[in-house]
Amino acid sequence: MGGDDGGRAGTEPLLVAHLDLDAFFAQVEELAKPSIRGRPVVVAGRGGRGVITTANYPARRFGVHSAMPSWQGRALAPGAVWLAPRGTAYAQHSTAALAPVKATFSRVEQVAYDEVYVDLSSARAPEEPADLDPDGPGKELAVLGVDWAGDPYAAASALRQAVWDATGLTASVGVARHKLGAKLASESAKPAGASVLDVAAEELLLPTLGADALPGIGPVSARKLAGAGIKTVADIRAAGEPTVVGLLGQAHGTAMWDLAHGRDARRVEYDRERKSVGAERTLPADLRDLESLRSTHAAVFSEAHRRLLRSGAAARTVTVKVKYADFTAETRAASLASPTDEEAPLRAAAEHALAATSAPGTGVRLVGVAFSALDTVAQLLLALDEAPVAELVPAASVLQPAATPGFHPAYARDASTAADPRLDAVDDSAPLVTEQSAPGSDVEHPELGRGWLVGAGHGVASVRFESSTTPPARSVTVRLAEGRLRHCAPEPPHPPTVPAPWEA
Ligand SMILES: [Mg+2]
């Protein structure tokens, strides 16, 4: 069943790219903190249940890897730089890094904050620029005139370059005829590589891989296969389809049998993201008083919020829709500084939006609440930020935004307009640094400028006053009792000031 389709498969063009930012969280940290560049860097949740989210390449040499419990990693690499995740910074860098990709191609499937599949046959025409930033780098890329289908290596290189030009982050890009091949190609290119896996190379590579290289073979399936002596893709092929189906079940077994032979029909699911989620209610009788309008609005909000939580997304914008007795309609929206799924700020935004309508006016026949600007990425990252804080900080101070920078009103200012953060006056409404503040946090001092917290304890904080464009700094000790060291927003992504490693 497998061998006779080689010829047909060989005619499929190499049109799927997989782009993966290298050791993403750690790279963002190295960008922002010149003194740790090139050192082993581990980004990990705090507290007893903390888990490593990213280890950079130098740290991996000690055997540290993502998803490992922090205590275990610390035993392996005690001398590494250990930092708490800065969700807002990662979300901003993810958005900036992927913007040129999404601006150049219309079919882009984002599978993680640092990972996308791209259908290379969907390059936007130059006269039809993206709906993102019309002046962004994507427009230029689209008119580069690269023949994506004819020169897949040019496509991989151009994608890698676009991410670098926007952010100074390296990505690895692989191109192949389907998702499986593209992912294998990008993995083989890591870090900072561009690679093409043609059909012949794929056929050489696949049988040599462990069975768990196939998407869908997790630890459970791998154990089932290993129990029958099947450890590699070659073993799967040799076992025969009935054996694989017998071990893994009909649907899964057939799918894995096909993948083992380089047959991957999975599409680039570019339209999977949902744009909004919400609820609305048409009322049995028109509402004419403010109090019943408010209670109906509160109930519709609660239903919409339940749906938001179920969707696993975070929202930045809340829109309230009101239809009146005369069939006219009104919508008003309110936006937060960053996406959240928390009820209180979203409810406040919804109430703000409702107050901006003229309801109840002539009488209200429908009330709707919708959440948009959804961001599953921010959701994931903020969850990482928040989890350990509940363990470490007494309940009364949980509201201190030290670990949830996105939500503090002090951060609502548009970071992208601040040219040099050192020129800004310190925002004296931002929260003070305390001994509970997370290592790696962005901090600001009225005289010493902007930096990051190395650690705090015994009434002092150790801070390196440096940013992405300054020389590496040494640690400086600041007394917390002075009350002059405050948290601040992360430095926004910006184009690099040095050439890419592959340009040098
Ligand atoms: Mg990655």
What do these coordinates show?
The strands form 4 sheets. Strands 5-6-1-7-8 form a 5-stranded mixed sheet. Residues 1-10, 129-145 and 378-424 have low confidence and may be disordered. The protein is globular and about 75 Å long. With 504 residues, it is α+β, with helices and mostly antiparallel strands. The chain contains 16 helices and 17 strands. It has helices spanning 6-10, 24-32, 57-60, 70-76, 87-104, 137-142, 152-167, 179-189, 199-205, 219-227, 233-239, 241-248, 250-260, 290-311, 343-355, 376-392, and strands spanning 16-21, 41-44, 52-55, 81-83, 108-112, 115-119, 171-176, 194-196, 276-287, 315-324, 329-340, 364-372, 442-445, 449-457, 460-464, 475-479, 486-487. Among the domains are: 210-260, DNA polymerase, domain 1, CATH 1.10.150; 276-373, Dna Ligase, domain 1; 383-487, no CATH class. The structure holds magnesium ion. Its main location: cytoplasm. Monomer. Mg(2+) binds at residues 20, 114. It catalyses: DNA(n) + a 2'-deoxyribonucleoside 5'-triphosphate = DNA(n+1) + diphosphate. The active site is at 115.
